[in-house]
Amino acid sequence: MTAMTTHTDHSDAELLRQMHAGAASAFAALYRRHQGPLYRFALLRCGSGDAAADIVQDTFMGLLTGRFGYDPLRGQLQHFLFGVVRNLVLKWEAPRRRHSALPEPGEDGADEGELELASEEAEPLGRLLDNEMAEQVRRALALLPPHYRDPVILYELHELSYQEIAAICQVDIGTVRSRLARGRAALARRLKALHPAAHAAA
């Protein structure tokens, strides 16, 4: 008996090759593989389910038509798609950024050691999003400046490396490290303000 052929074991590169050759099933397989992480990133990044769905849809349509010009020699497809989603979120945010979030007072001048300590003490974001504080976490994330939100989400939820985040955000690794520490510290402070009773009991 011959086993049914599926796309589950095919690499992204092979699925892309088949997609460009006209195989709709290959595109569907890529969509199933990457849609979830991309949507979660977009949703946490922009805070709107409708906008996140539209952004992810635009990302895959661009992949299908070649509009974004993915080059397999320049990195993994998922990292490229995260970068596309980020750019589309920035474009979506542009007209809404008249009153953008600013760093908290003293945030940029804070001692690096204090930031590292606050960052290390912050509870893992994935765990917080899986418990009863999920809505407070989303609200706190939405209050972070976008350049802090990106590395926090990509590192905490998608477990990307500093190097991978640097490529997606188009900054150097030192900037990623600093923004991640500041973002986690700011998130912890905002969560403490939103949910003081839970932190007092901890």
Compose a concise summary of this entry:
The chain is an all-alpha fold and 202 residues long.
Describe this structure in words.
- The chain is mainly α.
- The chain has two domains: 12-95, Rna Polymerase Sigma Factor, Chain: A, CATH 1.10.1740.10; 111-201, Orthogonal Bundle (Arc Repressor Mutant, subunit A).
- 68% of the residues lie in helices and 0% in strands.
- The protein contains eleven helices and no strands.
- Helix 3 packs across helix 4 (77-93) and helix 9 (162-169) crosses helix 10.
- It is globular and about 55 Å long.
- The termini are far apart.
The helix content, as a percent range, equals 55-70%
- In whole angstroms, how far apart are the ends? 58 Å
Low-pLDDT runs of 5+ residues are 1-5, 99-122, 197-202
**Integer average pLDDT:** 80
**What does the radius of gyration come to?**
19 Å
Secondary-structure content class: mainly alpha
Topology, element by element:
Blueprint (H helix, E strand, L loop, with lengths): L11 H9 L3 H23 L2 H17 L11 H17 L18 H10 L3 H5 L4 H10 L2 H11 L5 H8 L3 H22 L1 H6 L1
Helix pairs in contact: 1-2, 2-3, 2-4, 3-4, 4-9, 5-10, 7-10, 8-10, 9-10
What features would you highlight for this structure?
202 residues, mainly alpha, Arc Repressor Mutant, subunit A, 11 helices, 68% helix, disordered N terminus, disordered C terminus
